[in-house]
């Protein structure tokens, strides 16, 4: 029991100490007894030794984690320098699954440096890290934590209190999609941190070696660099090797990845003292001079941003003034007044670093996470402004998926009704404004996870009232898309009642400062629409094609085309309006979609399912099934209940020509085929959705097979950047015969070569 208590208290006390370390230091004379207790518990239970002590409780703890053994893929940190030096991570079963396949978006990848303006860094620090996000292939928590206000930041740091924090690929995939750089964390703290620091800094060569190993990890996993946090006391004689470590890590990262970043955290000083300066000054500037920036500790005073800017000179934007959202002695108090600190930083024209925005989630801010999150980030936007804009390139696609939900859909048809979470599944996130005053807007706009989706697990719903000729517009995206002479197609899906129409408003500007607004109107009432809106916008365009989703006819898919050579697309809005101001219920089209849901004239209800902006030449072209090689490895059969079997297998696929496929995502299905000799039941050969893969591999654990199942067909549905999905009948697949288990053996591991399939 004591061991269990210690195992629980150790990370809890560590987190408490870290978050309140400055306050506790100020009150040390009053808290020495408490600090002694905390020290005893943590010294007797170091982080790297937790697992063996937990396992000493018999018959109740899981076996120790063995990264070499096949298992549901997870992300995990490295806890010791020995792990780092041995390169054992690269031999882990989980390593291939943890690679990010999404390259940094063009707006930042065109130059090594970040934009020369004040920037926003967001440091994750959520519940110690590796929570729901550790499940690489996704989890089952529809309410899992996520960030979706990517357009407000430039850099995202994944943080935990382990030695080497490797960002789960879901964060890198999604951040890169939006143009945000991702850093891992290298941290040394506490007594064991000092011991590891002695080894790290024992020689110049050791400092260089560990720097090169960190570079190798970042490049292999596809993230963009490191936050260095040395929160330990050092001997002044170790400082030259620490400087060598920082310098060499920065140089090797830049050499391997020109767009990379290495940022120093304001902790140990040039004299070896653990003394947070809360500003850039002579005590920490030597480290700043060797890397790409400094994250200044969050207990600064009002004059410190300006003073730090003076010290940084022409590198003022590389100074990131920290703000602790939990409000621990942070300027302005954090929490709902985080914007107070942002206003000061903005006024002094340096960069900001928001630490622990998960406060909204962890403290269960009312009324619910979605509302509180949007409200909190809305305050950030009001203070700081928008950092990134999109679309900037084509094709551009969004299904408004936040990476969690209660169901999954493909082309309007629901393929899964199981709760899920996977931040990698986020598409481009809309720039929805949150006023915080529901009474001020006649239409309420929200991302909905329970309403049926056209694609993925989310959509944007518009509900409220509209009177007379009024229309309502909601910002969706702010872009910098330069258009050429060729036409651009806008395709979007809508589900609504008969009287509610939804269009798109596009805003453009030219080099000559000429501005235009074009309404892509909804598909009905052409004459009335033109008469109604032609005087309010530069142009009104009716859809060139309108179709119903094949699998879900309630979804109307509309496509319009424009040619705006020489102009830049700057904004995309949704426009809500009624079919006609004077229509009555009896005049509604009786056979229109969702006619049974028709509402009174003033009530508005519509759902936007997806948006695809593309050139005519960018239509999806999928390789035929025969172009792929599909195989299964790590195959394990075992017995289940009532004659059923269970299968675990790692699916792998690649193009036969050996080229890396550029496809961003794959949907995985299985068909369980029945031997008619084993049952008199007629079972439909339904494709069961298993999950989503971002790499060309997917691990299936303990798939239950009814006793009559004779064979399996695993289907790899290829998905493209424009949201298109290959038809299941044309997708690569693997046929697998169900193995008959020997009666004397309950489990059988099979040679992968024997059961490799074909595409």
TrEMBL record:
Main localization category: cytoplasm
UniProt domain Cytosolic endo-beta-N-acetylglucosaminidase C-terminal: residue ranges: 621-738
InterPro entries: ENGase, ENGase_C, TIM_ENGase
Signal peptide interval: none
Enzyme Commission designation: 3.2.1.96
Any one Pfam family match given in the protein's UniProt record, by short name: Glyco_hydro_85
Enzyme class at the top of the EC tree: hydrolase
Keywords: Cytoplasm, Glycosidase, Hydrolase
Gene3D superfamilies: Galactose-binding domain-like (2.60.120.260), Glycosidases (3.20.20.80)
Cytosolic endo-beta-N-acetylglucosaminidase TIM barrel domain residues: 130-407
Reactions it catalyzes: an N(4)-(oligosaccharide-(1->3)-[oligosaccharide-(1->6)]-beta-D-Man-(1->4)-beta-D-GlcNAc-(1->4)-alpha-D-GlcNAc)-L-asparaginyl-[protein] + H2O = an oligosaccharide-(1->3)-[oligosaccharide-(1->6)]-beta-D-Man-(1->4)-D-GlcNAc + N(4)-(N-acetyl-beta-D-glucosaminyl)-L-asparaginyl-[protein]
Subcellular location: Cytoplasm, Cytosol
Family as reported in the entry's similarity comment: Belongs to the glycosyl hydrolase 85 family.
Name under which the protein is recorded: mannosyl-glycoprotein endo-beta-N-acetylglucosaminidase
Organism: Coffea arabica
Lineage, opening ranks: Eukaryota, Viridiplantae, Streptophyta, Embryophyta, Tracheophyta
């Amino acid at each position: 029991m004591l061991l269990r208590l210690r195992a629980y208290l150790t990370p809890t006390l560590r987190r408490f100490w870290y978050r309140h370390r400055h306050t506790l230091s100020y009150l040390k004379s009053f808290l020495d007894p408490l600090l002694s207790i905390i020290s005893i518990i943590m010294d007797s239970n170091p982080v790297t030794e937790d697992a063996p002590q937990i396992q000493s409780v018999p018959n109740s703890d899981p076996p120790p984690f063995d990264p070499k053994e096949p298992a549901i893929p997870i992300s995990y940190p490295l806890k010791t320098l020995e792990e780092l030096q041995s390169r054992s991570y690269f031999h882990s079963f989980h390593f291939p699954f943890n690679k990010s396949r999404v390259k940094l978006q063009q707006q930042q990848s065109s130059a090594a440096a970040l934009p020369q303006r004040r920037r926003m860094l967001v440091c994750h620090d959520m519940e110690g890290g590796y929570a729901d996000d550790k499940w690489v292939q996704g989890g089952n928590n529809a309410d899992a934590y996520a960030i979706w206000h990517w357009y407000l930041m430039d850099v995202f740091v994944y943080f935990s209190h382990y030695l080497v924090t490797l960002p789960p690929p879901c964060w890198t995939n999604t951040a890169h999609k939006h143009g945000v750089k991702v850093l891992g964390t290298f941290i040394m703290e506490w007594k064991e941190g000092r011991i590891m620091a002695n080894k790290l800094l024992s020689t110049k060569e050791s400092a260089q070696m560990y720097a090169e190993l960190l570079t190798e990890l970042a490049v292999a996993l596809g993230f963009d660099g490191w936050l260095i946090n040395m929160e330990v006391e050092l001997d002044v004689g170790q400082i030259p090797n620490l400087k060598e470590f920082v310098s060499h890590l920065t140089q090797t990262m830049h050499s391997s990845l020109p767009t990379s970043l290495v940022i120093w955290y304001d902790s140990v000083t040039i004299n070896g003292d653990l003394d947070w300066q809360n500003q850039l000054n002579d005590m920490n500037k030597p480290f700043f001079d060797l890397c790409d920036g400094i994250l200044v500790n969050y207990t600064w005073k009002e004059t410190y941003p300006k003073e730090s800017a003076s010290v940084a000179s022409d590198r003022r934007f590389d100074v990131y003034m920290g703000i602790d959202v939990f409000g621990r002695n942070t300027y302005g108090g954090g929490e709902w007044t985080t914007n107070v600190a942002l206003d000061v930083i903005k006024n002094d024209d340096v960069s900001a670093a928001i630490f622990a925005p998960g406060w909204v989630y962890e403290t269960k801010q009312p009324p619910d996470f979605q509302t509180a999150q949007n409200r909190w980030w809305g305050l950030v936007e009001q203070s700081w402004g928008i950092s990134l804009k999109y679309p900037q390139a084509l094709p551009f696609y969004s299904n408004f998926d936040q990476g969690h939900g209660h169901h999954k859909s493909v082309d309007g048809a629901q393929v899964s009704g199981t709760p899920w979470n996977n931040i990698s599944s986020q598409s481009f996130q809309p720039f929805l404004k949150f006023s915080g005053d529901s009474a001020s807007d006649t239409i309420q706009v929200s991302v909905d996870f329970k309403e049926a989706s056209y694609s993925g697990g989310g959509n944007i719903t518009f509900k409220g009232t509209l009177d007379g000729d009024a229309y309502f517009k909601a910002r969706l995206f702010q872009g910098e898309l330069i258009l050429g002479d060729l036409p651009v197609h806008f395709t979007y899906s809508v589900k609504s009642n008969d009287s509610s129409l939804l269009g798109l408003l596009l805003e453009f500007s030219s080099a000559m400062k000429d501005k235009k607004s074009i309404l892509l109107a909804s598909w009905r009432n052409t004459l009335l629409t033109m008469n109604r809106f032609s005087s309010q916008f530069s142009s009104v365009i009716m859809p060139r094609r309108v179709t119903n989703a094949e699998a879900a006819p309630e979804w109307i898919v509309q496509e319009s085309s424009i040619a705006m050579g020489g102009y830049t697309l700057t904004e995309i809005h949704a426009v809500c309006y009624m079919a006609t101001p004077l229509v009555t219920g009896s005049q509604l089209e009786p056979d229109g979609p969702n006619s049974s849901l028709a509402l009174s004239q003033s009530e508005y209800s519509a759902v936007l399912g997806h948006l695809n902006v593309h050139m005519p030449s960018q239509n999806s072209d999928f390789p035929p099934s025969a172009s792929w090689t599909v195989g299964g490895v790590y195959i394990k059969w075992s017995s289940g209940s009532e004659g059923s079997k269970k299968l675990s297998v790692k699916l792998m696929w690649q193009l036969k020509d050996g080229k890396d496929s550029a496809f961003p995502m794959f949907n995985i299905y299985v068909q369980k085929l029945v031997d008619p000799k084993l049952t008199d039941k007629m079972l439909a050969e339904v494709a069961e959705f298993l999950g989503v893969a971002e790499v060309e591999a997917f691990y299936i654990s303990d798939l239950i097979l009814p006793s009559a199942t004779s064979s399996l067909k695993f289907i790899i549905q290829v998905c493209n950047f424009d949201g298109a999905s290959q038809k299941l009948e044309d997708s690569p697949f693997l046929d697998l015969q169900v193995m008959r288990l020997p009666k004397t053996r309950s489990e059988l591991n099979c040679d992968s070569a024997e059961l490799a399939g074909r595409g």
